[in-house]
Amino acid sequence: MNLNTMKSLKAFSKDQIRNKIEFENPWWKFNKIDSYYSEMKRRLYFNIFSPLIYEKRIKRAIVLMGPRRVGKTVMLFHLVQDLIDNNISSQNICYLSIENPIYNGLSLEEMLLHFLELTEQSSSEELYIIFDEIQYLKNWEVHLKTLVDSYHKIKFIVSGSAAAALKLKSIESGAGRFTDFMLPPLTFHEYIDLKDLSHLINLKKKEWKGIVGNYYQTDKISELNSHFIDYINYGGYPEVSLSPEIQSDPGRYIRNDIIDKVLLRDLPSLYGIKDVQELNSLFTTIAYNSGNEFTYKQLTVSSGVDKSTIKKYIEYLEAAFLIKVINKIDQNAKKFKRATSFKIYLTNPSLRSALFSPLKKDDDFIGNMVETAIFSQWSHNTGFIPFYARWKNGEVDIVRLSNEKQKPLWAVEIKWSNRFVKSIQKLANLKSFCLKNNLDRTLITTLDMEEIKEDDDLIYDFTPSSIYCYTVGKNAIDRKISNTMTIDH
Q: I need a labelling partner for 280 at 20 to 30 A (CA). Which of 115, 229, 319, 447 fits?
């Protein structure tokens, strides 16, 4: 580039920047957000997220992170409307999308000062500043830390899709100044809520021996199962869930906009990955076989990536919230000192159908994806670490160990079939594990049958997989909302 060309390059003018800021904040004029966002139903996670914004005692920025396309920007606009509805002046709320080229070269503080001058406000007022897609600003965490330390009356909310990078930098630089909030893919319960299907599937709390528990039942199980298959294929992302057009070609939408951006851009830039084809090959292998047991040797052979690189890539994919590694225990619930094999699940089952093709309820691989869907619900339970049990002649799909004594609290077997209800002798491995570890009750999922049986002092709860998936996700969110309300009061 010659000197004359360099001289001709111009930065955006002050007026251009301010026009853009005004355009991004239509509520200053109309006192409400755009109908495109207001007509979208709020995610149930909104009730867990919003109390953090109204918290005044702790001076922290809120970092909203999560995989791409789980609804972070929509949640931020819903937050704007919520603030207005709670009598916060619309002029006191500013939204800025950092990925817009017009803000290139500006620091967060410069953007803030543009807003203050534009609205003729003082930084001593109660203000709410939202920076969306924060990962597009280099060293964002340093900028944000400075703002939190300098402007005590302003609540800063930032969001970003490069979840692995955000988490890493938030932990490194934001100790005591940032509060992280993870927005995961939709639970099955949220999917049902978002699509307003509750009245069609008629789920009610289940009663057993006069006790009403946190389990559900329905007289419309075939309809629920149909929605469950749709959830497995399309349900992790709000936009895909609600759009028949995108569902007609989910591969194009999810592969291009979600997978490729993470695999080809976010992770390589964060970890210095040079061979993105290797990473893509490994992820494709894992996605196709979600729910299977893997060894590093198998992955090396199937993906063509050497063992040491595979270990790193698995860590990166897990940090990006694309996969979850589950470790095994033996028949006595003991962990292995050197884990040579492990299971890997997609954090969102619809990733697989986008990469390959949607599944039908009787496809060969549907059992694995039912298992993947159920494991994805458990990931919404903060602090819960699931295991699977595997020994020479047997396996149990999910085991929970107590935090204190590392003893099994419960064991669950995932089946997409009714045949075990009539043949409980075929559950000998599960029975053996339960009796060996002093468990008097166990749960087995089915296709559509519900029954309770007892044999050798062991109670078998048979529950349809779709109901169990719904239950786990609903209980997780209800628990989080309850905890939020407790803390709030």
A: 229
